[in-house]
Design a protein that fits this description.
The chain has one domain. Helices cover 78% and strands 0% of the residues. It starts with a helix and ends in an 8-residue tail after the last helix.
Length: 158
């Protein structure tokens, strides 16, 4: 039931991953000297790749419980990486984590993890939690790319 959706968002995320590399290349002069922008770019790529990988896991024919374990693992790995990248982006500055970023990333990971937990319990209908998370990951990643194109280098970098 979720294969078509997963294929669509997975393909979209994979394409956006490539475009993010182009955005970073366009703004390389700023990204190369800014720890914050390098780590924010890596966060956007992590969002896109998490959507891509989780979508690929959904379309692989396998038992529902196995998909649950894989989605929980993907959500945990992605959450850890996003937290490390956020801390690295703010290192050496007095900036605090932005509440909207914390809420968005928590909702993103929670939806994937909830989908995985439901699948682990044998309930494939829990992938309904995955759907908004995948869309949020795409939207937040595109927002990150937009920030690079329009704001990178317009203020002092660290």
């Amino acid at each position: 039931m979720w294969s078509a959706f997963a294929g669509t968002v997975g393909g979209s995320a994979a394409g956006l991953t490539g475009l993010m590399f182009i955005v970073v290349a366009f703004r390389y002069d700023v990204v190369a000297v800014s720890r914050e922008y390098r780590n924010r770019a890596a966060q956007a790529l992590t969002l896109f790749m998490t959507v891509t990988v989780s979508a690929a896991l959904i379309v692989i024919p396998q038992p529902t419980w196995a998909l649950g374990i894989e989605l929980l693992g993907a959500a945990a790995a992605s959450a850890i990486l996003l937290l490390v990248l956020d801390a690295a982006a703010r290192a050496g500055s007095s900036k605090r984590a932005q509440p909207v970023l914390v809420v968005a990333l928590t909702a993103f990971e929670a939806g994937i993890a909830l989908g995985g937990a439901f699948c682990l319990a044998g309930r494939g209908d829990g992938l309904g939690f995955y759907a908004p998370s995948a869309l949020l990951g795409l939207l937040w990643g595109v927002y990150g790319a937009w920030i690079f194109l329009t704001r990178a280098g317009t203020e002092a970098t660290s």
